[in-house]
Every structure is written in C-alpha cells, then in structure tokens.
Write a structure and sequence with these properties.
Layout (H helix, E strand, L loop, with lengths): L8 E3 L3 H10 L14 E2 L5 E2 L4 H16 L4 E10 L2 E9 L15 E2 L5 H13 L9 H4 L15 H5 L14 E2 L6 H9 L16 H15 L3 H10 L8 E2 L24 E2 L2 H4 L1 E3 L1 H12 L3 E2 L2 E2 L3 H7 L27 H4 L6 E6 L3 E8 L4 E9 L4 H15 L22 H7 L1 E4 L3 E7 L2 E8 L2 E11 L5 E3 L2 E11 L2 E10 L4 E10 L8 H6 L3 E4 L6 H4 L6 E5 L8 E5 L3 E6 L6 E4 L11 E6 L2 E6 L2 E5 L12 E3 L7 E5 L6 E3 L3 E6 L4 E6 L2 E4 L9 E6 L5 E5 L1
Parallel strand pairs: 1-5
Antiparallel strand pairs: 2-3, 4-5, 4-15, 6-10, 7-9, 8-10, 11-12, 13-14, 14-15, 16-17, 16-23, 17-18, 18-19, 19-20, 20-21, 21-22, 22-23, 24-25, 24-31, 25-26, 26-27, 27-28, 28-29, 29-30, 30-31, 32-39, 33-38, 34-39, 35-36, 35-38, 36-37
Helix pairs in contact: 2-13, 3-7, 3-8
C-alpha cells in the first residue's frame, strides 16, 4: 500500500501575525505539494481534492481561537477523504517559554475517543466467535457482582452502548500525575456495593465504567491484557506507529499538555482508565483508523473487521429503548451518535465521538457514505472541537458540491407570549433532578431558571415567558427554550437550544420533576450543612492542578423539602433521597444523568465518613489543628491522606510524603507536590489559616516543619 500521508505543517502564530496575515489575505493558503490532484470516488463523480477553501476557513477558526483570551495552547487536525489524508497540521505551542511548537506527530490524549478502540476490539472478537454482543458480561467475568440482582442481565452490547444502568464514572485514580495500575479492578470492587440506575437495556446514559469493564471481557476472551491486545491487534496492523497508552512515561516534547502561568507544560497526564480514555495518539494516526472504517473494515491489504462489524458499530443501538424521551439517544457501539445532528440537517450520516479530560478535548467524525472524516485534538480551553469538526465537514461537502451550501445560523424570533394561569405556572416550578439539580421559580408570571452548585443556587436564565406552542423562552435568548416532556409516568424538564454552527436546535433532558418527600430524619438533619474532605486520591490530575475542590457538601433547601443535595466532584450537585435509610442517601429518579452515586455513611473511630463511589471523605469539622510542639504526621495502615489545620505560617517544609496539598480556608489550592515533582510552588506569602493534606506510605511518618 502506498503511503497516504501528505506534507504537514506547523504554525505557532502570534495574534499580531494572525492579524497581519488576515489583512494580507494570505492566512491559510495551502502549501505546495500538500495535496493530491483530482480524483474519482465512483458514483459520486470527480471533484478537486485540495479543499483549499475548507482548510482556509478551518485555519482561520483555529488561529482566531488561539489568539483569544483563554484559548487553547495547542491544536492538531487531520482531514481525510477516502484513503488519503488531505490536510494534517498542528498549531501553537507545547512550551511557550521555550518556544517549543507541536508537529503533526505530537501526541495528544484521545480521552473518551478511546472508546472507539474498545468497540473495535470487541467486534474483532465477535468476528472471531470469541464474544457475543448479547451474552451477559458476567459470563466472561464471573467475579462481577453488584448490590442489585439485575446486574446479571447486563450484556456486552449494553456496555458498549451506554445502556447497562451502571452508576457512571469512578474518577478516583482515573487521571493522575503518577502512573497507577489496576483502575478497572478498583471499579469492579466498588460496584459490588452499588445499585443500577435503571434496568439493563431500559434507557441509555453516558457511562465510562461500562467501557472499563470491556477491558476485562477482552482479557477473559483472549488471555492477553487489554492494552497488549489493542497494541498488537489494532495499532500495529494499522500502522498507527505513534499511538500508545498513557500509562508509560512519554519523552519530553513528544506530547501536549496544558501550560502553567509561566507558559511551561504541566506534568504528563497518566490515563489509567484504558478503554474509557487511555490512548495517546495523533490526528494522522487516527486518520488510518478512519480509512479503515470508510473502507468497511479494510486498510490496504489488512482486513481488521468484517463489513458487518463496521455496520453494527454504526447502527443506532438506542432505537428500541423502553425509555428514550424525544428519541434523543442514537448511540452506536463506541459512538456517541450515529446521526451527528449538524450533518443530519443536510441529509448526511456521520458517526461522532467526542472526548475530554483535564488537558484534552477531541472530536472524531466519520461520514461513511461521503468517504469523509476529520480528527480534531486540542489541549487547553477556548475551542469547541465538536463544532470545528462539524464545520470542516460541512465546508468540505459544500466545496465539492455534495450539498448546496454551508447551512446558515438560525435567526429565531420568539413566538408571541400567551396568557398563563397561576396553575400552569406553578406546574412548571419546583426541582428537577438530572445531570445537575435544576429549579424553576415564579417571578412575576415568568420563570427564573436556577442551578444548584456547591451549596448555592446560581441563575441559569431569567425572564422566560410561555409562548405559543408551549415553550418558555426569554426575549433576550430567543434560541433557547424550556418545555415539559411526559415519559415513563414522570414529568421531565427539556432544554432546546441552538447548536453546532447555530443552524439547528438540539434538545437535552435536564431532569425529572421531584415529588415532595417526608421530612428529614434527625440524623440526616444533623448532617445537612456539613462538609467533608477527600482522603484517597493522592495523585489525581484534577486535584493536583486545583481543577476540583476536595470538598463534599450535603445541604438542603426549603424549596425541596425532604431532599438532600450533594455537591462535590464527581457528583456536582445531585438530589438525594434520604428517606429509606439513615445510612444511605439514594440518588433520585430514573433520569438521563451520568455519574449518579448513593452517599453512604461509614462509621470510623466515632466519626461519620462518606463513601461516594470509591471516593472516601472525612468530616471537615473534626480536622485536628496543628500543635505548636508537633513535628510529624503519622499515616495509618490504609495509607489514607491526613488533614491538618495550620496556623498562619511564613514557610513550610515536608519530608517523606508521597504527595501533599496546601489549601486556603476556601479550599483553593495554594501548592502541591507529587513525590519529587513540584506541581505548584508555594506562594511567597501564605494566607492566615490553611489546610494541609499529606499522603504517605501505610504506617509511615511524615516530617513537617512550619
């Protein structure tokens, strides 16, 4: 097979350079020799393959994002037409301080795009007769258990299409700044005491842990580790020579990372959830995977999948779900959507998979009938990779004449308001449990939309009036609407909004209406308003970089009598039903929300600790204050983190710790060290009161000097 790669380039442009090139009209012109000439794709007829206008538009979009405040620090992209890469380019900086720029061979974390590999691995085994999609997972992994007998009905197909009913995502140790093995076995142990969100196959909710269980199924069917199977059976035969799992230490300068305040790269993000989000790759390597899928499972002389397996991956697995309000789900096997909505508006079928981690955002879109695919990878923030990928494909389709034009943004005018009775208004008001906790309030015959975040209600919208057709729309945001959907005997709050290139409206289910519960028991009443601190995430990326807080809160609100509200990562803000037990508060409702966990009370040395998934939290109000004659901290037999409240100090020295974190009184991260790696330097001036979290080996002693 001839090499499908064309010439690739890198552009680390400054804002001044961008503006200068734009003014000269030279921004984004194709480099000579980058493209092949004209080609013919059978019945679709011939078209020029340079896509100059498409690439010009995409470059301009990327460069404008790079120049904006809060924009990404690096972007890499590839456009594929049939069996050729027509464009591969990398932008901006890997290390701004040193002037190090990315190339098309620079590795980016694929994050959840890795799920496509899990699906391909499974379909390889289906083709070989080693796995059956509709056989229960427990057949392959008999040690799998849950505190819910329905777990026996979970099939391989359900795991790959997010319809298993598993709680969601066990984030502890998933993404770390130090390699840690055994994350999938952590999940297996944690699930043994957890309930299903819904009956297997009843509905579909995004679920990372289901894909991690696929690791165990692959290993059971083949006798090889999941990572070895992917490397030997997919990466190697496809010639994806740069791709690897993020469990090994990568050479400096070979991979992208977010940048710190000094413009230097943050430490490598180790991805321990292999099937869920563990692969590091490049857009050009992903182009080879795209070519395989565009050619029905074959790349050159390599036949990796049967055409039937590829088609099954791209079939809507959600069409027969018992509960699918408004038919919002169209999961494939490994795909987020087998009808990418922005392309569906112009009659084009595309399979889409997004990914996101602390560092990375990725989008992999494949349009099988059109022979087109795109891979966009970003590190840092400020660029919507999903919208960019959609934009590239729409422009490419228009440029070659497959569609008349790129769709234009909608320009909606809100329908006229209609009279609303007090009964109709109050029927909308109240709490809704979903991915977040939502609440609607009556303000002078219009609705105010609130969202619960870390112990408080934040306004998400106001001045929403009832309109002809029944939607609630604010004059100031005419392309956003709220409305009610009846499903499964429950009222669900739905959200309609402009999406993609603003040329269509997408719909999400925000949450299920909450009924009134009995008053809180005395025990739960005493816990409401208290805070807890995590003690078992020593190397977590999100913690080490201060992305998340170690705080977990339980609170209540008079507008939701009988409920507790849990706030903290990964729960965000979720409604809990504490009426069944004084030891376990249950997540509420049958809702299309990810990462739902019961909050379990554990008695430890006379204190009430919380277990949320596999994350363990100790009470904040019993954290011991530092004694003036103290010089060390003893680590217990479990190796859990030890918290201390520190007085105002001018310096801090710690010896013998595996990791330590220093927070201010609001639990904003001040400093962090992982082993010998200084993740965040101590500030020159420390605030008055601080909180110190120290991790060490079990039964060790950590020296601390103030």
């Amino acid at each position: 097979m001839s090499d499908p790669y064309g010439k690739s380039t890198t552009h680390p442009f400054t804002r001044r350079e961008i503006l200068r090139m734009a003014s000269l009209g030279t921004l984004g012109l194709a480099a000579p020799g980058l493209f092949s000439g004209c080609g013919d794709r059978g019945s679709n007829g011939p078209w020029p393959l340079n896509y100059a206008a498409t690439i010009l538009d995409a470059r301009q979009t990327i460069l404008e994002a790079l120049a904006s405040e809060g924009g990404p620090n690096a972007v890499s992209v590839a456009l594929i037409d049939d069996q050729r890469i027509l464009w591969a380019e990398a932008f901006a900086f890997l290390d701004k301080k040193a002037g190090l720029t990315p190339t098309p061979d620079t590795l980016f974390g694929l994050a959840s795009g890795s799920k496509v590999f899990a699906a391909i691995a499974t379909m390889i085994l289906v083709d070989r007769g080693l796995v059956d999609l509709d056989t229960p997972f427990v057949h392959y992994v008999p040690e799998f258990r849950m505190a819910d007998d329905r777990y026996r009905d979970i099939t391989i197909r359900m795991l790959l299409s997010h319809s298993s009913g598993l709680p969601g995502t066990d984030y502890r140790n998933a993404s770390t700044l130090f390699p840690m093995a055994g994350h999938v076995h952590q999940i297996l142990a944690s699930l043994a005491d957890q309930r299903l969100k819904h009956a297997p196959g009843e509905m579909a909710v995004y679920c990372n842990d289901g894909f991690e269980l696929i690791e165990l199924a692959v290993a059971a069917a083949t006798g090889a580790s999941y990572t070895d199977f992917i490397a030997q059976e997919i990466l190697k035969p496809l010639g994806m020579t740069h791709s690897r799992f993020g469990i090994e230490t990568l050479p400096g300068g070979s991979y992208a990372a977010t940048l710190n305040a000094q413009g230097e790269p943050n430490p490598q993000e180790y991805m321990n959830n292999h099937a869920t989000g563990g692969i590091y790759t490049t857009p050009s390597d992903m182009a080879r995977l795209a070519m395989l899928l565009l050619n029905e499972g074959r790349l050159g002389e390599v036949r990796l999948l049967s055409s039937g397996a590829v088609a099954e991956m791209g079939r809507d697995q959600s069409a027969t779900l018992a509960l699918n309000p408004l038919h919002l789900c169209d999961w494939g096997l490994g795909w987020d959507s087998v009808r990418q909505p922005g392309l569906a508006t112009v009659g084009v079928t595309a399979w889409a998979k997004s990914g996101g981690s602390n560092y990375f955002a990725t989008q992999f879109d494949v349009a099988p009938d059109e022979g087109l695919a795109v891979m966009v990878m970003r590190v840092g923030g400020g660029l919507d990779v999903g919208t960019l990928a959609e934009r590239i494909l729409l422009h490419a389709l228009a440029e070659r004449g497959s569609i008349a034009e790129v769709p234009q943004p909608l320009n909606p005018n809100p329908p006229p308001t209609i009279p609303t009775s007090e009964t109709e208004l109050l029927a909308m008001c109240g709490g809704y449990a979903g991915q977040y906790l939502e609440r609607l309030e009556n303000h002078d015959q219009s609705l105010t939309w609130l969202r619960g975040v870390m112990g408080q209600w934040l306004e998400a919208g106001s001045g929403l009036w009832r309109r002809e057709g029944g939607d609630w729309i604010a004059d100031s945001v005419p392309d956003t609407a709220l409305f009610i959907v009846e499903a499964d005997g429950h009222r669900h709050l739905a959200h309609r909004y402009a999406a993609g290139l603003k040329h269509y409206q997408a719909v999400d289910i925000l949450g299920q209406a909450l009924a009134t519960l009995p008053p809180l028991s005395a025990k739960w009443q005493a816990r409401a308003g208290k805070s807890w601190l995590q003690v078992n995430d020593p190397f977590g990326t999100y913690s080490a970089l201060g992305i998340t807080t170690p705080l977990f809160l339980l609170w209540q609100n008079p507008s939701l009598p009988g409920y507790l509200i849990a706030s903290g990562y990964p729960m965000m803000s979720k409604a809990l039903d504490p009426s069944v037990s004084d030891d376990r508060a249950l997540w509420c409702g049958k809702v299309a929300a990810r990462d739902l966990y019961d909050v379990v009370i554990e008695e430890r040395e006379g204190e009430e600790w919380l277990l949320v998934g596999s994350s363990l939290y100790r009470p904040m109000d019993t954290v011991p204050a530092w004694a003036s004659d103290q010089a060390e901290i003893a680590i217990g037999a479990e190796g859990l983190g030890e918290w201390r409240k520190l007085p105002a100090v001018s310096a801090l020295s710690i010896a013998g710790a595996n990791a330590w974190y220093l927070y201010d009184a609001q639990f904003t991260l001040l400093a962090c060290r992982i082993g010998e790696m200084i993740v965040r330097e101590l500030p020159e001036e420390l605030p008055g009161e601080t909180y110190l979290l120290v991790y060490g080996a079990p039964d060790s002693v950590i020296g601390v000097t103030l």
